[in-house]
Design goal:
With about 475 residues, the chain is α+β, with helices and mostly antiparallel strands. Helices cover about 35% and strands about 25% of the residues. Helix 1 runs antiparallel to helix 2.
Length: about 475
């Protein structure tokens, strides 16, 4: 009979896990579809970009979209493989209770990210040599959570690459691997993306001499006889396949639980580029940041309920409302005091050194008591806890064991609560209504723009423009 109950319990757990995996897979598919729409909108926007800063931002968004799509697809594949393995396994509980126990999740925060640069003395102090400029940003990833930093323009006037805003991961386990990738794009040289057609025409005409240059300028301006309807060949619309700036991986770092500390620390940075690369920046080979972790068991209520408490050798039992949170069992006179976060009547430490076991001192019937032993200085102090029923006592014991397991997995992160810095809101630079914005360069029908036969690099489709605006607005609101 007992074996049948175990088999039914295992089948129920398998069914529940399959439902959870199915729901999670559906959610991942929705995220993939969302990122694909964002990527399509960014591609349309990139084809309309006429200024390099805009193209750099859009290309960065494309790189982030692609990274998220790949991460979601890899996780979806992993989930499908897990479903196959569950079907092949006879009993999920055969691995034992320890293997089936999972640690709580936590929040990982990266702030004050700095990457020092090592310019030559002649470049940094004497300001000699070519002004090597790059656009850089960092991509940070834990599992399927991927975030990007703001873009920074770097040249020899900077001693450090500074990324001010904090990055917060909300669903990390103690076995997390934080991947920080530094991407760089060179800004040297003029291109059709960074120079307007009139500037190009001026440079071409000046380089050909006075007479030839005058004829060339007239042809480019569309005023020469036989010109194409008064529209310059350089003002033709850009093709949808127009390529933008190229970000290249310059360096990366991999951090884990061992690197977590509530302080500003230096970590190794693996440099993948070299001096021959156009996107090269002279890196020291290290990055500095504040990496903190906040397990949910340290900040959230783990368990709450009424317990009778007996202190030391006292014979009286006091019925209290007890709340397990972090490294304390907070004992209140009333549940209202706990809700109001008032001062507890007294506190029992629950940490890695605490010993808890079911007690045989139960006054009557099945075991309902638990003994909690701590060392304060050189003295051993024991508290007796009595649940209101054997089932409730078993429930408390399971919660205590899970809590100890969480603390053992998160290690030093459970010694004290680390402060997590919340990211400040970021505004999409492409949507700011300032002069030079891409949308000020888009000629919309009926908006008083230039003639339709000479719109040139301007976006002509109002519906596409509205679609791109909506896509990017959703992208930035969802990402930050």
């Amino acid at each position: 009979m007992q074996d049948r109950l175990h088999i039914l319990e295992d089948l129920n757990m398998l069914y529940i896990r399959q439902i959870a995996l199915s729901l999670e897979g559906t959610d991942l598919q929705k995220k993939i579809d969302h990122e694909v729409r964002m990527r399509d909108g960014a591609c349309k926007l990139l084809a309309a970009c006429t200024q390099r800063p805009q193209a750099l931002e859009v290309t960065k968004s494309l790189l982030v979209c692609n990274s998220r799509i790949l991460a979601y697809m890899a996780e979806l594949q992993r989930m499908k493989e897990a479903q196959v393995m569950q079907h092949m396994a006879r009993r999920p509980s055969e691995a034992g209770p320890t293997d089936s126990r999972l640690p709580c999740r936590g929040r990982i925060c990266v702030s004050d990210l700095r990457i020092p640069l090592m310019w030559k003395d002649t470049e940094y102090f004497k300001n000699k040599g070519d002004l090597h400029r790059c656009a850089v940003f960092c991509l940070l990833q834990i599992g399927t959570e991927i975030y990007d930093t703001e873009m920074v323009l770097a040249d020899r006037t900077l001693a450090d690459l500074c990324f001010e805003n904090a990055v917060l991961f909300t669903e990390a386990g103690p076995d997390f691997e934080l991947k920080i990738e530094l991407y760089s794009a060179a800004l040297e040289g003029d291109s059709a993306l960074g120079a307007t057609p009139k500037k190009l025409a001026s440079r071409l005409s000046s380089s050909l001499g006075r007479s030839s240059g005058k004829q060339m300028r007239a042809a480019l301006d569309g005023s020469a006889p036989g010109s194409n309807g008064g529209c310059s060949p350089l003002m033709l619309p850009l093709a949808a396949s127009t390529t933008g700036p190229k970000y290249q991986l310059l360096a990366c770092a991999h951090l884990g639980l061992a690197h977590v500390q509530d302080a500003f620390r230096t970590h190794d940075l693996l440099v993948t580029g070299n001096e021959e690369c156009s996107f090269w920046l002279p890196l020291y080979g290290s990055l500095c940041c504040r990496l903190v972790a906040q397990p949910s068991c340290m900040v959230e209520q783990v368990m709450a309920g009424f317990l009778k408490v007996q202190q030391g050798e006292q014979l009286d039992w006091t019925r209290l409302f007890c709340v397990l949170r972090g490294t304390n069992l907070l004992c209140y006179r009333r549940p209202q005091d706990a809700e109001a976060q008032a001062e507890a009547a007294f506190t029992i430490a629950i940490n890695k050194e605490t010993r808890i076991r079911a007690s045989e001192k139960s006054p009557r019937g099945p075991v309902r008591c638990m003994s909690v032993t701590n060392h304060y200085g050189g003295e051993e102090v024991t508290h007796m806890l009595q649940a209101e029923s054997p089932a409730e006592a078993q429930r408390w014991m399971e919660v205590f064991w899970q809590h100890f397991y969480d603390m053992s997995q998160w290690k030093h992160c459970c010694d004290e609560v680390m402060t997590v810095e919340m990211p400040s809101p970021r505004h999409p630079p492409l949507l700011l209504p300032k002069q030079g914005s891409l949308y000020h360069e888009m000629a919309l029908p009926g908006a008083g723009g230039p003639p339709s036969n000479c719109e040139g690099l301007l976006l002509q489709d109002n519906a596409v423009s509205a679609e791109i605006r909506a896509l990017l607005s959703n992208y930035y609101s969802d990402s930050y």
